[in-house]
């Protein structure tokens, strides 16, 4: 998706424009940003939108990451500079580490449990008072969002989910429950939406100042819930411990390990994923994924000053173990980031 120059949208654009230009064109990523901050939009349990359109304010259109977005503008607001072309192909960053949770934690998590350990540190040190995380039911892997305020709640939500869900709506839930220093873990499109909320000049107080920490996940693509029904026929979902994508296969860990070529499930990929050009959550405070690190570790890209203080503190206080990633690991991340950017630009031009 190419970068657009942001222009004022209030009273000039509204939800009908959003529906026509984004939803009806198959560009919607179902990030949930519009529904989280505009009470005129509701996202039901199924992947459909319900609009109540007795008022036009332009907010939903303005904060959608699929309408106007200038990456340069947001980068300057967040990082006080823009990226350095090929040198920072995966976005502005300060350090890149291979991280795993320390022995002080019993719960392993996925790829070393880095996200859970970092969030535990942030909550323990009162940097945030809750974290909005994506979770699922234990038997059928149906995805939902959860506001976690302690370590046990974080552990219950650990692990990668590959079903599309509008997780940003969890920020609204956190605000309604009285939290004032909110952390959020989500996908690149969701991070983009929240950064637009934080950086866009608009006339409404939508509690954007309560969003304190954004942890973005690496994401090549995500899948519709129908994929779970497909997998259930191969491996009963109640037996599945975790999902993972390795190379060109999705690995399903149950009583045995089942490997499904991605080509067999590509028709479940969300339409909005195909126009996305961001693999490594380039606008997050911290980006996390498995690419570039050895098994049992997470790749953690530190992007902002706040993110750097957080990771350094978690290392110092023994929450995580970390080693800087060498050039070879960075090249692996860049390779996949280029593939996603190329695909997104190609699909956007159609």
Please render the helix and strand layout as text.
Blueprint: H1 15-23, H2 33-37, E1 41-43, E2 49-51, H3 59-63, H4 71-79, E3 95-101, H5 114-124, E4 130-136, E5 143-148, H6 151-156, H7 169-176, E6 182-186, H8 188-199, E7 211-217, H9 226-234, E8 242-246, E9 249-253, E10 257-261, E11 286-289, E12 298-302, H10 305-316, E13 320-324, H11 327-348
Parallel strand pairs: 4-6, 6-7, 7-11
Antiparallel strand pairs: 1-2, 3-12, 3-13, 4-5, 8-9, 9-10, 11-12
Helix pairs in contact: 5-10
3D architecture notes:
This protein is of the alpha+beta class and 350 residues long. The chain has a domain at 81-224 and 269-348. 31% of the residues lie in helices and 19% in strands. The chain has helices at residues 15-23, 33-37, 59-63, 71-79, 114-124, 151-156, 169-176, 188-199, 226-234, 305-316, 327-348; strands at residues 41-43, 49-51, 95-101, 130-136, 143-148, 182-186, 211-217, 242-246, 249-253, 257-261, 286-289, 298-302, 320-324. The strands form 3 sheets. Strands 5-4-6-7-11-12-3-13 form an 8-stranded mixed beta sheet, sandwiched between helices. Helix 5 crosses helix 10 (305-316). The chain is globular, with a radius of gyration of 19 Å. The model is unreliable at 1-11 (pLDDT under 50).
């Amino acid at each position: 998706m190419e970068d657009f120059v942001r222009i004022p949208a209030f009273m000039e654009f509204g939800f009908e424009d959003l529906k026509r230009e984004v939803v009806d064109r198959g560009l919607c990523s179902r990030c949930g940003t519009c529904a989280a901050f505009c009470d005129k939009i509701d996202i039901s349990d199924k992947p459909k939108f319900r609009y109540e359109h007795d008022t036009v304010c332009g907010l939903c259109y303005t904060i959608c990451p699929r309408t106007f977005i200038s990456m340069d503008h947001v980068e300057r607001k967040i990082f006080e500079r823009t990226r350095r072309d090929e040198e920072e192909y995966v976005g502005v960053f300060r350090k890149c580490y291979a991280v795993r949770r320390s022995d002080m934690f019993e719960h392993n998590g996925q790829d070393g449990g880095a996200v859970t350990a970092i969030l535990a540190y942030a909550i323990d040190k009162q940097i945030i008072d809750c974290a909005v995380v994506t979770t699922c039911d234990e038997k059928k892997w149906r995805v939902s969002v959860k506001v976690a305020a302690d370590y046990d709640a974080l552990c219950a939500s650990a692990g990668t989910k590959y079903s599309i869900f509008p997780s940003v709506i969890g920020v609204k839930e956190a605000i309604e429950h009285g939290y004032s220093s909110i952390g959020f873990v989500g996908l690149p499109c969701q991070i983009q939406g929240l950064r637009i909320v934080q950086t866009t000049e608009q006339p409404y107080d939508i509690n954007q100042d309560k969003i304190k920490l954004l942890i973005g996940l690496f994401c090549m693509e995500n899948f519709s819930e129908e994929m779970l029904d497909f997998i259930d026929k191969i491996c009963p979902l109640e037996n599945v411990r975790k999902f993972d994508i390795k190379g060109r296969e999705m690995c399903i860990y149950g009583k045995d390990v089942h490997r499904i070529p991605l080509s067999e499930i590509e028709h479940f990929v969300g339409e909005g994923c195909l126009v996305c050009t961001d693999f490594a959550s380039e606008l997050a405070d911290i980006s996390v994924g498995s690419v570039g690190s050895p098994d049992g570790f997470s790749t953690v890209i530190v992007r902002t000053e706040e993110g750097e203080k957080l990771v350094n503190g978690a290392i110092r206080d023994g929450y995580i173990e970390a080693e800087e990633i060498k050039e070879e690991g960075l090249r692996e991340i860049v390779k996949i980031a280029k593939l996603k950017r190329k695909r997104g630009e190609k699909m956007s031009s159609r």
